[in-house]
Design brief:
Length: 192
């Protein structure tokens, strides 16, 4: 989870906790010059809260940033992130009175991150599957027949179960048939 996705998640969580979002990416100005930016500015019943949102773990630097920016805006500081980077960050937040909200148990990703994660998982699964397939003439028969009962009649019940089980690591029946086709193709190439 990165940047804007983290900020959207933080905003939704804070709204659910009763905070009202008064601004997003609010500039911190001193003497007419922008010196920093606050990710979210909240208006709870007791006053303004300036929020520093981190996509990852909250470290000492983030705590200091949240504190300094909030004080410059006359607000209370808060950090939101996926957890503490270390004990020092947590201790500093407590000492400085920086509120915190951690969403370490939530998995949130934007479209690109989700695509990359799913693509990697699917690629890894396909590679493992392909590497586990042994070339087999019986797999060709299964691919041609597309029916395990027909395969049993042709080569016997035990042999058919063994073939289907070896290809069954693929998962669904369609995946078993795809594995059978691949096994058959490898067998035909190896056969010459």
């Amino acid at each position: 989870m990165r940047g804007s996705a983290s900020e959207r998640l933080a905003e939704e969580l804070l709204k659910a906790l009763g905070f009202k979002v008064a601004g997003r990416r609010v500039p911190v100005e001193l003497e007419g010059r922008e010196v920093a930016e606050v990710d979210l500015l909240l208006e709870p019943p007791e006053g303004k809260v300036a929020v520093e949102v981190k996509a990852g773990k909250v470290d000492v630097s983030a705590v200091r940033q949240a504190y300094a920016n909030a004080k410059a805006l006359g607000a209370e500081p808060m950090v939101v992130g996926s957890g503490w980077a270390n004990e020092e960050a947590r201790l500093l937040a407590e000492k400085l009175g920086v509120r915190y909200l951690m969403f370490q148990d939530l998995l949130v990703a934007d479209r690109e991150e989700l695509y990359a994660t799913v693509r990697t998982a699917v690629t890894d699964a396909l590679v493992k599957l392909i590497l586990s397939i042994e070339p087999s003439e019986e797999a060709c028969l299964l691919w041609e027949l597309k029916d395990p009962k027909e395969l049993e009649r042709k080569i016997g019940k035990e042999k058919a179960k063994e073939i289907v089980r070896s290809l069954g690591r693929a998962g669904s029946w369609d995946a078993v048939l795809a594995a059978a086709k691949l096994s058959c193709m490898i067998w035909k190439i190896a056969k010459g």
